Amino acid sequence: MNDNVVLTSGRDVDSNRLPQGKRRRMTRIIAASAVALVAGAGILAGALALFGGQAGATGPTVCTWTAAAAASGGNAYWSTAGNWDCGNGTGNGPPAGGDAVVFPATVPSGSGASPHLDETTSPLASITFDNSYTLNITSSATTLYLDPSEYGVSGNVAISDTDTASGAVASIGTPGSPAGAIFITGDATIESAGNLELNAALSGGASNDTLTFAGTSGGCAGSIELYAQSTYSGSTAVISGTLNNDTSNALPPGTSLNLGSACYELNNSQTLAGLTGTGDVNSNYENPVLEIDSSVSDTFGGQLTGTLSLDDSGNGTLTLSGSNDYTGGTTVATGTLVADSSAALGGSSGGSVSVASGATLQLGSTDSSVTLPNNLSLENSSTISTPSLSSYSSATQFVVTGKVTLGGGVNVDAGYNTNLYLEGQVTGSG
Predict the structure, then answer these.
(1) pTM confidence score
(2) What is the percent of the chain with per-residue pLDDT over 90, rounded to a whole number?
C-alpha cells in the first residue's frame, strides 16, 4: 500500500498525509470493533492508524501563504495552488475546509503582501496575520467562511492579528471598497494585538451565538476597525482592546453589546438591541447617535464620553450607573431610562434631556442621592419618577437643578419614602 491512509475509531482522517494533489478535508471514518482492510494479498483487521508507521492525532492542517507562484511571475490569487504550503511543501494549496490559514511574519516579496481572495472558501478553522497584509476581496459575491468551533480551534479564535509593530495593519477586504463577506459560524472570537481592519461585512451566526472581539494585552490595547455593515445574528462582546465603528451600523442593529474592560469608538451612529458592561464608549467624530432599542432591562456601568448623543428607544429599562461626560444630549423616546448617578446623563456639559410622551425618566434606583444638572424637557404624558425605598432618610435627595420645561400633562411618580425636587426654573404647564 503506497499511499498513507488513516483508519481510526471515531477520529479524524489525517488529510495532511494524503498524496499531493489529493488533499481534502475528510470528515470521519468510524471503525467498528472488527474492520478488515484488503490491500493486495494482505488483510489488516481491527481499528488501525497508519501514519507512516506511527499512530497519532491531528488538528487543523496549517496552510501558510508563500506567494511562490506570484514571485515566479504568476498571480497572488488565493486559488493558485503554488502560493501555499499546506504541510507538504509549496504547491499543494489552496486551503481546504477545516484548514488553519497563516500569513507569516516574513512577508513574501513582490505582491505577496496583497493576496487576492478570488473564490469563496470552504469553512476554514481560522486565519492568522503575523505581519501587515491586505487580503483583497474585490467581488461582492466572494465569501471568506470561518468555522473555528467545528474544527477545535483553541478559544474559537476565527481571526487573529498578532503583529504589534507600530503602524502595522492587517486587512481583510479591499480598503476603501467594502465588498464580499466574512461568514462566521458558532461562538467565535476576532482578536488583534495591533491593528486589524475588516473591510468586508461580518455575517453568519445564530440567535444564541456570541461574536467576541478582543485585544491580546488587556485594557484597550489592540484595535479592530469595522468598515462594513455587518449582518450576523446573536450577541456581541468586546472583552478587551478597542472596537472601532467606522461606518453607520457597523454592528447589526439587532445585536446587544456587552462591553467589558474595553473601548468602543463610536465614529458613526449605531443602533443596538442592548448595552451592558463596564467599558468605555467614546466619540470624537462629529455627533454620532448611540441608539439603544432594548426590550429588556440592561445596566451599563461604563463611561459614555465625547460628542455622542444617546437615544433610548426600546420598551425596556436602561440604567446608566457610571459617571458620563458625553455632550450630545439625551432622548428618552420609549421605555424607561434610569439615571443612577448625578453624571449619568453627561453631567453639567451633557446637553439637554428630552422625555417623549409615554416614556419615563427615573432618578436613581437605590438610596443613593442623584442631582441631575441637565436641562429637562418633559412632553405631554411623559413621566419623571424616583425609586421606592424601604425607609425614609432626609439625606437621600433626588433633585433636578437644570431648567425644566413642561409640555402639558406630565406624570410625577415619586416612589415610596422619596421626594422629587425641581430646583431650577420651571416653565410651561403640567
Answers:
(1) 0.86
(2) 78
